[in-house]
Amino acid sequence: MFTPRPEDKFTFGLWTVGNTGRDPFGEAVRAVKSPVELVHLLAEVGAYGVNFHDNDLVPIDASTAERDCIVHDFKAALEETGLVVPMATTNLFSDPVFRDGAFTANDARVRAYALQKTMKAIDLGVELGAKVYVFWGGREGVETDAAKDPVKAIQRNREAMNFLCEYVLDHGYDLKLALEAKPNEPRADLYNPTTGHMLAFIETLDHPQMVGVNPEVAHEQMAGLNFMHSVAQAWEAGKLFHIDLNDQYPGRYDQDLRFGSRDIKAAFFLVKFLEDVGYDGPRHFDAHAYRTEDYEGVKDFARGCMRTYLILKEKAAQFNADAEIQALLEEINACDGGMDSYTGAYSPEKAADLRTARFDRAALARRGMRYERLDQLTIDLLLGV
Ligand code: GCO
Ligand code: MN
Ligand code: MN
Asked: In the predicted model, is pLDDT for residue 251 greater than 90?
C-alpha cells in the first residue's frame, strides 16, 4: 500500500534530489551526483519521471561534443530505468550574467542571450520527450524600483513569451508552456508574483492557448495565500498545465520542504482537489531533503513526498465516502429550487421580480452552518481516529 505506480505520475527535478545542501550560510554537505546517477536514484525510489534545467544536464560552457555525449548517456539511463522526461526548463538565474534578470534585464544583450539560451534549452527538452516547458522567472525582479519600470518589465516579458511561442510553433513542437510565479527570493520582489498575476498576464499574449501555469505550494504560501484556491482558479481556466509540490512555513525563507510535511490539512485539500477534478498531469515534487541528510536521507525525502501524497489521496476517498461528512455537506448545500426563477442568467423580468421578492433576512441570518462539526470530522479523519 502507498507504493508509487507509473500512473501516479510522480516526478522530481534533477535539482531536487541532486540538491547538495548549499545555503546562504554554508557549503554543500552532499557530494555532487551525475544526472545518470540521479536517474538511477529516482528509479530506485519508484518515481515515474525526471525534469531538468538545461544546465542540470549540460553545463553552461559545454562544447557541442560534450553535450552530445552527456545527452547520449542520459538517454541510455532513461531507457534502462523506464523513467520519462515530462517537463524541462531553463536556468536563467544561476550564471552571473543574469544578475539583473533575463527577459526583463535592463541590458538588451542579456535579454537576447536569454532568448538564445531558452531556444536551445527548448530543443534539448523536446529531444528528451518533454511535453511541458516551464518558465520560472528566477531573477525577473528588482531590489529597488529606482532600477526598472514595472510596466516595461511586463512588456519585455510579453515580448519574450510571444517570441518563444512562435519559436515552438515554427518548429512544430508538441509543447505547452507553463509559467511559474514566485513573490520573492532570490530578489526582493519578482514580477508577476502570484499564479493569479500569471493567469492575467497569459491572456495578453499572442498565443494564450499554448500557455498555462505551474503553481508551486511554497510560492503561494510565501505570499500568505491559499495555494489550493490558486490551483482551483488555474484549473477552472483550463490552465493547470503542471504543478510543483512541496511545503513551506509562511513568512520564512524559501524552504522547499518535503510535500505535506508542514501543513497536512492544506496538503489534504490540495490532493483532494487534484483527485476530485481528475488532474492527470505530472505531480512534480520541487523540494529537497534537509541539509542534515546524506543520500539515504534524500531517498527518505523522495519516498516521503510520494507516500504522503498517496496517503492523502486515500484520505480524500474516505472523505468522499464518509456517510456523516456527506450528509452534512448535503444539508449545507440543500436547495429546493425555490430561487431558480430569480437567479442564473440576467433578464429584465427576472431583475424586476427579484427587486420585489420578500426575504426573511433575520431568519436567514439565524442559520448555523455546521462548519465546526464538518471541520472536526475532517480532522478526525486526517488523524486516523
Ligand atoms: C524555485 C523554483 C524553481 C523552479 C525551477 C523550474 O523556487 O527555485 O521553484 O525550483 O521551479 O527553476 O523552473
Ligand atoms: Mn520554489
Ligand atoms: Mn518550482
From this structure: no
What is the set of active-site residues?
53, 56
CATH of 6-320, one of 3.30.565.10, 3.20.20.150, 3.40.50.12710, 1.25.40.20: 3.20.20.150
Classify burial at 369, counting beta carbons within 10 Å of its beta carbon; exposed 0-12, middle 13-18, buried 19 or more: exposed
| Nearest alpha-carbon partner for 95 in 75, 117, 122 | 117
Å from CA of 204 to ligand 1 middle: 24
Domains of the chain, residue spans = 6-320, 323-383
Q: How confident is the model at residue 367 (pLDDT cuts 50, 70, 90)?
A: very high
81: CB partners within 8 A, 6+ apart: 39, 40, 42, 43
Q: What is the mean pLDDT of the chain?
A: 98
Q: Is the pLDDT of residue 45 over 90?
A: yes
- Average pLDDT of the segment spanning 132-149: 98
How would you classify residue 370: left for phi > 0, otherwise alpha for psi between -120 and 50, otherwise beta?
A: left
The atom number, within ligand 1, closest to the CA of 254 reads: 7
pLDDT at 273: 99
Cell of 345: 442568467
pTM: 0.97
Ligand with an atom nearest the CA of residue 244: 3
Alpha carbon nearest to ligand 1 atom 9, residue: 286
Residue ID of nearest Cα to ligand 1 atom 5: 136
Atom nearest to 91 CA in ligand 1: 12
Check: CB of residue 95 under 8 Å from CB of residue 53: no
Interatomic CA distance for residues 154 and 20, integer angstroms: 34
Residue nearest to atom 3 of ligand 1 (CA): 136
The closest-lying atom of ligand 1 relative to the alpha carbon of residue 182 is: 7
